[in-house]
From TrEMBL:
Start and end residues of each HTH araC/xylS-type domain: 253-361
Residues spanning the membrane: 6-21, 33-51, 63-84, 93-109, 121-142, 168-191, 203-221
GO MF terms held by the record: DNA-binding transcription factor activity; sequence-specific DNA binding
Entry keywords, A to Z: DNA-binding, Membrane, Transcription, Transcription regulation, Transmembrane, Transmembrane helix
SMART domains: HTH_ARAC
Gene3D superfamilies: Homeodomain-like
Protein name: AraC family transcriptional regulator
InterPro entries in the cross-refs: Homeodomain-like_sf, HTH_AraC
Claim: Secreted is one of the keywords in the record: no
SUPFAM superfamilies xrefs: Homeodomain-like
Length: 366
């Protein structure tokens, strides 16, 4: 099986996913953007199919580049729609489309020139700018989540440890954008200095896009809940769950910020006897408001929230020299866990590894 046949099969698979998402029961705001992302992926496949089948693909280059410019904003708005549960307003959409449209226009203008060298360097510069967009938009997504979770600047890259089930596709697309930007920047740099490696980098880019298609399909098949059902459409943070509560969204975020600050500054999670009642009394916040806030904003219970801090503290201690001779259980007690069973369950829940596996990985990396 040659590369064109593999590309064709991936294109068929992508079309299949688009058909599924086009069904009435899946026609949600988030899936509209996801379908558009799949469409841009299809454009990539078409471009590479024409390239490797030795057809006159040059005429399709402007179309290909035009759609690649739109894909970073599309992914960003997909993530934002998952977070807020509804389509963004036109006023918010338009500014993000101006740069892609401007770059697409530049490609068309350049395409009309007869100087091939100008064309090549213009397209290379645009790809470098596209790579910059693929870095900028993931940062915007991370910033959006950090704002919702009321995280400080030094904590923003911890956003994906919350609501893991609901952010599967967001994590995948953010990782994809960052990796794709690395490939495009590498290509742009090698274009300027070592053109003999361009074909190899282009092949890596194709492999990446093919893998992306299969990974999306795998997640859709194994985790069908990530395709938002029309009857079950929810935002990442569902405030309807407590519709009869007097706790507003704004107040919940203030409470979340206070709890996070309290845990970070006082390190109360190190106390094995810390409880919801104690935290409620010390912060002078009703216990049910704390429970409601943690559930609504972080998708966690009080115990999960506390154990998450303990697991992170355990991971930090593992990397400190003075604790290298400590046993895993001793370190678990050091960070506030009361029993081995509770620690093992919590650690596996938040890291998808056992403590022994995690420690072994650290030692191998050293």
């Amino acid at each position: 099986m040659n590369i064109t046949e593999i590309i064709f099969l991936c294109a068929i698979q992508t079309v299949g996913l688009m058909v599924i998402l086009s069904q009435k029961k899946f026609r949600t705001p988030a899936n509209i953007f996801l379908n558009f992302i799949l469409f841009t992926l299809l454009i990539h496949y078409a471009f590479y199919y024409f390239t490797y089948s030795n057809k006159a693909y040059q005429i399709y280059t402007p179309y290909f580049l035009s759609f690649t410019f739109i894909s970073p904003p599309a992914i960003y708005f997909y993530c934002q729609t998952v977070i807020i549960g509804k389509l963004p307003s036109t006023r918010k959409l338009v500014p993000h489309l101006l740069l892609p449209i401007g770059m697409a226009a530049l490609v068309y203008i350049t395409k009309g020139t007869e100087n091939e060298e100008v064309q090549r360097y213009t397209i290379n510069s645009i790809q470098f700018l596209l790579a910059s967009m693929l870095i900028l938009y993931p940062l915007l997504v991370i910033h959006k989540l950090a704002k919702i979770y009321q995280l400080e600047r030094f904590q923003i890259f911890q956003v994906f440890k919350y609501n893991k089930e609901k952010t599967v596709m967001i994590r995948l697309l953010v990782s994809m954008m960052l990796f794709h930007s690395l490939l495009l920047m590498t290509r742009a740099i090698f274009f300027c200095f070592k053109e003999q490696y361009l074909d190899f980098i282009e092949l890596l880019n194709i492999i990446f896009l093919l893998v992306l298609s299969y990974v999306i399909a795998y997640h859709v098949i194994t985790r069908p809940n990530i395709i938002h059902h029309k009857k079950k459409q929810q935002s990442l943070i569902s405030f309807k769950q407590y519709s009869k509560s007097g706790l507003s969204e704004e107040k919940a975020r203030i409470i979340a910020a206070r709890i996070n600050s309290y845990y970070q500054e006082e390190k109360v999670y190190l106390d094995p006897n810390i409880s919801l009642k104690i935290v409620s009394k010390r912060l002078n916040i009703p216990a049910h408001h704390i429970t409601e806030t943690l559930n609504r904003l972080l998708g966690q219970s009080f115990n999960d929230f506390t154990n998450n801090y303990r697991v992170e503290a355990f991971k930090t201690l593992l990397q400190e020299k003075k604790y290298q001779n400590y046993s895993i259980l001793a370190l678990a007690f050091e960070v506030g866990f009361k029993s081995k069973a509770t620690f093992n369950l919590a650690f596996k829940k938040f890291t998808k590894q056992t403590p022994s596996e995690y420690r072994k990985t650290l030692l191998q990396n050293d």
